[in-house]
Amino acid sequence: MRLWRVARILLGSCLVLYAVLTAALYWTMRQPLDRFGAIMRHVPGVAMAVLPFEPIWMRVRAGVLQPGDTAPDFELSTVDHSRRVRISEEFRNKPVVLIFGSYT
User: Fold this and answer.
1) Total-model pTM
2) Which ranges of the chain does DSSP label H, i.e. alpha helix?
3) Which of 28, 31, 77, 78 would staple 35 via disulfide (CB 3.0–4.6 Å)?
4) Domain limits of the chain?
5) Residue 33 pLDDT more than 90?
6) CA separation (Å) from 43 to 26, 33, 36, 54, 73?
């Protein structure tokens, strides 16, 4: 009887700890990316295997654009930093294709 009580207390404590850590991860992901990175560099790698990192990330950082939606207007430097390009100005002159990803 005593063993079951200890087991229930231990299991309950683990569930509460898991919930608190998951809530902390959710809060961290809602921070601006520079702050998120500064916090996450202190988190041990095993936490990513235990906590639901990917489902929370996909929900928090999902955005509102859908395939086919008009891209929001933004401005970027050219690769050689010789000028700034605004997407709305480029779109008026010729078709624009946006490709996001990593080539590394």
Assistant:
1) 0.61
2) 2-29, 33-40, 46-50, 53-60, 87-93
3) 31
4) 2-93
5) no
6) 13, 15, 11, 15, 35
